[in-house]
Amino acid sequence: MTIPGNAVLVCFILCTYALQITCQETSRLKGDIIRVEIASVGHIYPDSLGCLPYVGPPQDIALDMIQRKYEGVFNFSLQYIFDRRIKSCNELGDNAVNLLAPWLFKPRNAKIVRALISPSCTDAETFSLNQLASEHNLLMITSINNQNVIRNKKLSPTLVSVSHYSDGAYFDFYRAIVTTYKWLSVFLLIDDSTMPQYYVIVSRTVVQSLSTIINQTVTVRHLKRSQPIQYQEALREFQSVSRVLLFFGQAEHARSLLIHAVSLNMTDGEYVYITTETFVYPLLFGKLDWRYGDENDKVARDAFESLLVIRPVDFNETLPPGGAMNPAEISQRALSNYNFSLLLTEQPSLNLIAAYLSVEMFAQVLNESFVKYGSSSLTDGRHLAGMFIDKTFDTFVGKIAIDGFGQRTVDFMLSGFDATNTTFTPFLFMNTKTGKTQVLKDFSWTKGKTWPPRNEPKCGFSGDSWDCRTTTNTLLSGSLTAILIMALLALFALIYCYRSHYLAEKAYFNHILWRLDEVLLLPAQQTVSHGDT
Ligand SMILES: *[C@@H]1O[C@H](CO)[C@@H](O)[C@H](O)[C@H]1NC(C)=O
Ligand SMILES: *[C@@H]1O[C@H](CO)[C@@H](O)[C@H](O)[C@H]1NC(C)=O
Ligand SMILES: *[C@@H]1O[C@H](CO)[C@@H](O)[C@H](O)[C@H]1NC(C)=O
Ligand SMILES: *[C@@H]1O[C@H](CO)[C@@H](O)[C@H](O)[C@H]1NC(C)=O
Ligand SMILES: *[C@@H]1O[C@H](CO)[C@@H](O)[C@H](O)[C@H]1NC(C)=O
Ligand SMILES: *[C@@H]1O[C@H](CO)[C@@H](O)[C@H](O)[C@H]1NC(C)=O
Ligand SMILES: *[C@@H]1O[C@H](CO)[C@@H](O)[C@H](O)[C@H]1NC(C)=O
To answer: Which helix (H) or strand (E) holds 361?
Structure first.
């Protein structure tokens, strides 16, 4: 069988045409897929929980997930931006803007959607990147650091934080506790001796929060890096001005403080000690336990009854078993991508969870905005950041809420030491979104004393206020009258002396033509200040 020549030609033309159409079709389809470029600034030296070897793997796992979930709609890519010479969070803070700039200014198709999703490990980094993101209307999401500049929407119109550290929750909860129990004088003790940044940030927030309460007295003291640490000195000062001590420092220092308090009789139920813990991570925050296997265990156990602890409800959250975000997968990726052995038994999984959430929630917002407002809405960082505000997201760890400032809300609880099973049990809960507190159970305070202890003991902080002297009223008023009479007599005598002296002097000065002010006779040196000695 032979095929005529022009039939072959016609077939060829038709085939080419068909191929062309198919090509055009696929390229049109491809054009419909929205390209999304995510930049993640960080450093790869594993000195902190905010570095890429920790947060990179969960971000990558989340990226794989959203790539599958939104296939055909979005095509995501995530670029890590780092410099091997940068070895610490502080150096990164100084260089973050320079690192991001080439990515930011790279010429690209205007339709490409961009966002900055970084752990951010210092305030300085958040601050500088936020400024850049805001100038360029670029959505920025942080997963580790949360700087309170986020509350200023003029300065941070595109900033969102899914960090587990919820500044607003600490602000509200400390305020709620102090007002609920009517503690008008509190003493803040900030431990400078071994200080994760967390304590500095929380104590700063608490000072701000308490200063919004009318008639509140706040005394702030730092425990210096001296050896030995001056606990007794701090406790004596506390005793003279307050009965409620808010402690910001590592768990073992809280324990030492309480052991010293026992020796000063300051654990009798008149004094309250409140510490805080953001998540269980002994390497950084210490172990909040009376059992250290030393000679002080028994004393500490007793003293812990005077200690309360403020914690987020999910402070001991673990990674959900099964699913893509499992410990084995994270470790494997950390090793293959960063040559880093990530020991998950020692990891605060809350940070890993937050890194995953930053990517997962970003994709949800992108999809929703695309469906509701079309593709042009996706290049507007302000608009995207606005879509996080006051919203609750369904995520792989359940519902996650974002507040009116664009930061994650975390519910809090206050726990007391349960003497029967010697663990901390929550008794007061705050729903951060509504700001309402709820009593979970009756709390029995140490040594059978009534809860809550008074802000100030009946006889004042030093034990000798006027109220307490009324018992010796008659005696006191008797001697008071005597003192008064004597004072009056002395006054009359004085007036008499003065009058006679004055008259004599007046007579004398009548004969003098001038008088110098004594100030004029003093040397000019007098203005030297009486400052530091
Ligand atoms: C996604 O984009 C990359 C380039 O960034 C491209 O190589 C890849 O083929 C794209 N994937 C799809 C499914 O379009
Ligand atoms: C604050 O203190 C003053 C003076 O002691 C008192 O008159 C006032 O009622 C107090 N205000 C509040 C809100 O407690
Ligand atoms: C502590 O209180 C007990 C009894 O309440 C008393 O015997 C002891 O002297 C007190 N110690 C100090 C240091 O005040
Ligand atoms: C935290 O959780 C782990 C594992 O679930 C448990 O062994 C540990 O005792 C918990 N720690 C605290 C302080 O609750
Ligand atoms: C990976 O780390 C180990 C030590 O932790 C080192 O000996 C090895 O050279 C590293 N491998 C690469 C490819 O950098
Ligand atoms: C994208 O958003 C729309 C509207 O909210 C929703 O119906 C759809 O399920 C979302 N897509 C995915 C993959 O979740
Ligand atoms: C300890 O006991 C209290 C009640 O006395 C209980 O509410 C709490 O759940 C117990 N905690 C543990 C860890 O068993």
So the answer is: helix 349-373
What's the full length of the chain, in residues? 533
3-state SS of 389-435?
CCCEEEECCEEEEECCCCEEECCEEEEEEECCCCEEEEEEEEECCCC
**This prediction's pTM:** 0.77
pLDDT in tens, the chain (533 residues): 444 556 555 545 544 555 554 444 344 344 589 999 999 999 998 878 889 999 999 999 999 999 999 999 999 999 999 999 999 999 999 999 999 999 999 999 999 999 999 999 888 999 999 999 999 999 999 999 988 899 899 999 999 999 998 888 999 999 999 999 999 999 999 988 766 778 888 999 999 999 999 999 999 999 887 778 889 999 999 999 999 999 999 999 999 999 999 999 999 999 999 999 988 888 888 999 999 999 999 999 999 999 999 999 988 888 877 777 888 889 899 999 998 887 766 667 889 999 999 999 999 999 999 999 999 999 999 999 999 999 999 999 899 999 999 999 999 999 999 988 889 999 999 999 888 999 999 998 998 899 999 999 888 887 777 767 655 554 555 555 556 656 766 666 666 656 666 555 555 444 444 444 444 444 444 433 443 43
Amino acid sitting at position 296: N
Q: How far is the CA of 366 from the centre of ligand 6 (A)?
A: 10
Q: Give dist(CA 304, CA 204) in Å, integer.
A: 25
Report CA(213)–ligand 2 centroid distance (Å).
Answer: 11
404 Cα: distance to centroid of ligand 2 (angstroms): 31
Residue 420 Cβ inside 6 Å of ligand 7? The answer reads yes
Phi and psi (nearest 5°) for 509? -70, -20
Torsion of CA 385, 389, 394, 399, to 10 degrees: 130
